[in-house]
Amino acid sequence: MLSPIIEEALNNQIAVEAQSSQVYLSMASWAEVLGFEGVAQFMYAHSDEERMHMLKLVKFVNERGGHAKVSALEAPPKEFGSFKEMFQELFNHEVKVSACINDLIDICLQQKDYATHNFLQWYVSEQIEEEALARNILDKIKLIGDDKGGFYLFDNDIKQLITADTTQQP
Ligand code: OFO
């Protein structure tokens, strides 16, 4: 059984994951309109992954006797300046999400909720991977600089980075 404090904290995280999915969906749409098919596919897949993170939390909260809430979301930006700025934003966003997961883990320890603590370890590992991936992409973009040809190749290469777990069910 979840304590009201843990239930509320998990519901806040559900909103964070849903908001992440919205932000990446907007990035996908922007890249698609600009004709960058690879970047768009990557962002659509990333948006789906965040929805999967959200659903995993929803199911956990309900299974543990709580009530997972669906809350209103903020409209994300529609444009992102440049791809460098967009991937920087993605990286910053993931760092913020990692901080939210860490706060959640602190609350679990304070509340002695070891089951939820255990469940959240999956998110800890996921955040390590997501931050590393975002940093890796950002490094590549910095190397490309203003080289249009380099960016064309990058748009093609990024398709390889679309992870298989977007197709997994929570
Ligand atoms: Fe990329 O954040 Fe979810 O967990």
TrEMBL record:
Which residue range or ranges hold the Ferritin-like diiron domain?
1-145
Does Ion transport count among this protein's keywords? no
Q: Which domain of life is it from?
A: Bacteria
Q: Where in the cell is it found?
A: Cytoplasm
Cite the Pfam families for this sequence. Ferritin
Q: What does this protein do?
A: Iron-storage protein.
Q: What is this protein called?
A: Ferritin
